[in-house]
């Protein structure tokens, strides 16, 4: 019975890792621009009128090769700082402050996730409101939202309040999934070079902090915030206290933004092959679809399969040796090799 519960936990962790990568990758695809849509936008004025407008695409943060080189440095500094803070300060007070910070982030992330799920399932088209601040004819702040955003924000605040009160592990997973989904959409690698530098650097980072020190495991156990997805090893333990298996969000987000890059690359290759250009009308083969059209995804499929295989290897080794494993030890090489092999094939 205990073994069955453990394998259920592994399956749940794997599902929670793959889902935000898959759906986040497709959500990171911007709406195509064309001459016709630009003409309609100029006729209506500066502000988009509906929530499916091409002007609605969210701003993203580009990661360059220079940024990728610094990822392990910044990550190490943040991780060791948290280790020192937990070691020398009151853990309860630290977690109290961190809970407040993550509560604010959680409301935003859950709101975005809820809006995308509802719009994706229903295809609803809603009026888009703008809150725009202008200084000397220059926009300094532009907030766009719909009634759906307001409704989801209210639901997210209730969910956040329940989490702060109960620290329920299932709600914590919901926040973790929302954070992962949002990060994969917003953080975009500018090239495969940057992605491989990032994965290689964090490969070394993960090995050092897991195998070389107690820091990574110690912080993960003491950090009472949704920075990981967890699942009980046994849903009905005889002792009455749940024990959990876990996966850090970094092991989802870091490979996830690389997988999303593969999908965007696949689409760009397809668009180039059919003669798409931003300043021209959409090619007929797209049937006037600015998003949601099909295209071949060899790089995405290969990288996604490599991630699943790498994660399965991580879980297998962890189960066999009964010890925590640096997941990027297996995920980073798997994702890099998948892209290289696909390019050569």
Task: Describe the main β-sheet briefly.
Answer: 2 strands, parallel
Flag low-confidence runs.
Answer: 41-45
Q: Please trace the helix and strand order, writing H or E for each element.
A: HHEHHEEHHEHHEEHHH
Helix content: 55-70%
Write the topology of this structure.
Layout: H1 2-27, H2 35-44, E1 61-63, H3 65-88, H4 91-122, E2 129-135, E3 138-145, H5 147-166, H6 169-186, E4 187-189, H7 192-212, H8 215-222, E5 228-232, E6 244-248, H9 250-273, H10 298-321, H11 328-344
Parallel strand pairs: 1-4
Antiparallel strand pairs: 2-3, 5-6
Helix pairs in contact: 1-6, 1-9, 1-10, 3-7, 3-8, 4-5, 4-6, 6-9, 7-9, 7-11, 9-10, 9-11, 10-11
Question: Quick summary of this structure?
Answer:
By secondary structure, this protein is mainly α.
Task: Give an overview in words.
The protein is mainly alpha-helical. It is globular and about 65 Å long. The protein is 65% helix and 9% strand. The model is unreliable at 41-45 (pLDDT under 50). Helix 4 (91-122) packs antiparallel against helix 5 (147-166), helix 9 (250-273) runs parallel beside helix 11 (328-344) and helix 10 packs antiparallel against helix 11 (328-344). It has helices spanning 2-27, 35-44, 65-88, 91-122, 147-166, 169-186, 192-212, 215-222, 250-273, 298-321, 328-344; strands at 61-63, 129-135, 138-145, 187-189, 228-232, 244-248. The strands form 3 sheets. The protein has a two-stranded parallel ribbon. It has a two-stranded antiparallel sheet with strand order 2-3. The chain has a two-stranded antiparallel ribbon with strand order 5-6.
């Amino acid at each position: 019975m205990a073994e069955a519960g453990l394998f259920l936990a592994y399956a749940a962790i794997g599902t929670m890792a793959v889902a935000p990568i898959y759906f986040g990758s497709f959500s990171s695809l911007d709406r195509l621009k064309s001459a016709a849509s630009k003409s309609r936008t100029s006729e209506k004025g500066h502000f988009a009128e509906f929530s499916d407008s091409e002007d609605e695409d969210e701003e993203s943060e580009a990661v360059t090769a220079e940024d990728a080189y610094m990822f392990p440095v910044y990550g190490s500094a943040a991780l060791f700082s948290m280790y020192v803070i937990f070691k020398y300060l009151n853990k309860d007070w630290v977690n109290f402050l961190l809970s407040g910070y993550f509560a604010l982030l959680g409301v935003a992330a859950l709101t975005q996730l809820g809006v995308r799920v509802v719009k994706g399932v229903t295809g609803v088209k809603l009026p888009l409101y703008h809150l725009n601040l202008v200084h000397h004819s220059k926009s300094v702040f532009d907030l766009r939202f719909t009634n759906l955003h307001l409704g989801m924000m209210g639901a997210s605040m209730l969910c956040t309040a329940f989490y702060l009160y109960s620290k329920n592990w299932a709600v914590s997973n919901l926040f973790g999934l929302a954070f992962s989904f949002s990060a994969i959409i917003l953080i975009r690698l500018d090239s495969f070079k940057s992605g491989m530098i990032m994965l290689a650097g964090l490969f070394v980072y993960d090995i050092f902090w897991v195998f070389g020190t107690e820091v990574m495991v110690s912080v993960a156990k003491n950090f009472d915030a949704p920075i990981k997805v967890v699942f009980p090893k046994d849903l009905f333990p005889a002792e009455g206290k749940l024990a959990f298996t876990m996966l850090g969000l970094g092991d989802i987000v870091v490979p996830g933004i690389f997988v999303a890059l593969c999908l965007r690359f696949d689409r760009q290759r397809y668009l180039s092959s059919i003669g798409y250009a931003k300043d021209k009308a959409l090619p007929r083969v797209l049937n006037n679809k600015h998003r949601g059209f099909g295209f071949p995804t060899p790089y995405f499929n290969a990288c996604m399969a490599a991630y699943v295989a790498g994660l399965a290897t991580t879980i297998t080794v962890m189960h066999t040796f009964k010890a925590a494993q640096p997941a990027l030890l297996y995920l980073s090489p798997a994702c890099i090799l998948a892209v290289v092999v696909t390019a050569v094939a």
